[in-house]
Design goal:
The structure holds two protein chains of two kinds.
Chain A: H1 11-39, H2 52-55, H3 57-89, H4 97-122, H5 136-158, H6 167-186, E1 189-191, E2 210-212, H7 216-251, H8 258-272, H9 287-299, H10 301-314, H11 320-324, H12 326-349, H13 351-357, H14 361-391, H15 398-431, H16 443-478
Antiparallel strand pairs in A: 1-2
Helix pairs in contact in A: 1-3, 1-4, 1-16, 3-4, 3-7, 3-14, 4-5, 5-6, 6-7, 6-8, 7-12, 7-14, 8-10, 9-12, 10-12, 12-14, 12-15, 14-15, 14-16, 15-16
Chain B: H1 3-32, H2 46-49, H3 61-66
The chains are: A mainly alpha, B mainly alpha.
Bound molecules: protoporphyrin IX containing FE (HEM) (2 copies).
Amino acid sequence: MENRPLEYDYTVAKMFMFATIALGIVGMLVGVILAFELAFPGVNTILGSGVAEYTNFSRLRPLHTDAIIFGFTLSGIFATWYYVGQRVLKVSMAESGLLMFLGKLHFWLYLVIVASVVVTLLAGITTSKEYAEFEWPIDIAVVIVWVVWGMSIFGLIGIRREKSLYISMWYYIATFLGIAMLYVFNNMEIPTILGTNGIGESGFGDWWHSVSMYAGANDAMVQWWYGHNAVAFGLTVPIVAMIYYFLPKESGQAIYSYKLSLLSFWGLMFVYIWAGGHHLIYSTIPDWVQTMASVFSVILILPSWGSAINMLLTMKGEWQQVASSPLIKFMVLGSTFYMFSTLEGPIQAIKSVNAIAHFTDWIVGHVHDGTLGWVGFMIMASLFHMAPRVFKREIYSKSLMATQFWIQTLGVVLYFTSMWIAGITQGMMWRAHDEFGNLAYSFIDTVTVLHPYYTIRAVGGTLYLVGFLLFSYNIYKTMSARPVEESELQNASPMGA
Amino acid sequence: MGIAELQGYGYVALTSLLVLILYGYIYHLYTKKRDSDGHDYEEYSNMALRDDIDDAPVSAISDDKEK
Ligand code: HEM
Ligand code: HEM
């Protein structure tokens, strides 16, 4: 035992990798079902009207968003943290029994929460706040898991050998702190059973049921301060952490400008916090909040593109790698989609544009060019890079990876183009009126027009899911492929045929 | 002067201050080029590129202890 050289310990990283894949399949499968339900309403009762309660759109939608954000994405974040964290701090989890224990505890508690979320959402138990649907007992459990994750982050930092924190570390820490603050404030709620009404009656509702501590417009503002920053600190910041590590590592190129990465970090942190109001434009919140959110959303292009361009320039002079390695392709396309959605978002945040875009499918298009093209691609690329190192085996098949890349790229393109057309058509039809101000169309007119685009979206989503299944198969086979030498693994990941 | 006007001035002052801090930081990064430990910022990229457990850290914790 004593003579074995010290190695990084990927036990916990592996556990979260499996969770990422399993929850990715669940989340995307539900997404595809939803897409078909919107195109063909009959799918809502596909398993018979007896169980329609569990298969209809409204019951499944929060399952999609929560499984994919807090399941797939968050597990991906944890998996990469338990991998990257050790490496850039140059300390192994094997060096501390306590950290190992915390890591495993983190995983198992997290799994318990995932299970309870799935069960409660399917049962229709929800606070009905988007992305914050969990009822109070689950919220408390979430806080506990988060604290455990925090202890394992700061514990690892505490025993590090590398004094400075690599830029990815900053982003992981920001994810931890940002979500902690937002989650606690937005989920302040009071169990209804504790409430009393005007004539002294108490004990209303089920024990798990609660109401928000905020009311009306305040509730909306807190909710979207949270909601937007769930996007910021869940779907952007930690994914930037990934690309800052995995792209330089896989390509063997130093970050184009480390200074620019520091600058973009502070820019992003400062600006993101103020942009939440762009979800509430033309609603009953103060006008200045809307204007401020609009302005900050436009400024947000700068730090976002700062990171994205920094990544693309990291590939300067090495573009042949994009052609030869499907893994690099995923990451370069990922950062391109990041630029794309962070340009699209600010445009949608301009008041006059939002007047057309809000409530339409264009927003759904924006969501999915960001999440499928950027979040999904980066998480899969990170897992592809980690697999040969944690399993000490080469990636099972390079050609399968390339096939997956093209299938999924086609899927993303079909998804967002169809939603753009659908969204703008919808926006224009809703506001069209005749010379007397009578609306030109009724709601059902738009539904008829949109049908083909919904079908295209469902097909695009199915392609993405198929790609994800190929990914899962490739990783599964990697676990059993031919072993490789640890020393080969400096940069580019080894890949079989 | 009403509260709205005060808010306006406050907003301008705060924004100007933040812009100054930001540009100050940029100026600092690009003129000094090194942090207080004497490391060129660009060296820190090596934390990712050379991250085997027995690679030498860019700035080791143990350096501090020796001082
Ligand atoms: C500069 C960056 C960005 C800005 C300014 C921005 C702006 C916006 C705006 C204006 C909306 C529509 C609000 C509405 O009218 O309902 C929106 C929605 C959304 N965006 Fe972005 N966006 C940005 C980047 C991103 C990225 C990178 C992602 C994901 C990876 C993302 C995910 C979302 C999601 C999930 C929603 C939908 C929220 C909901 O209504 O449920 N955004 N964004
Ligand atoms: C196979 C891939 C996917 C398909 C087919 C799909 C499909 C859908 C559908 C049909 C909706 C409902 C849209 C509506 O209400 O009109 C939706 C919403 C949403 N999806 Fe996906 N999805 C997929 C992947 C993802 C991924 C990977 C993420 C995040 C990482 C994601 C995040 C979201 C979010 C945040 C919403 C709510 C958007 C909003 O409220 O504006 N989806 N998705």
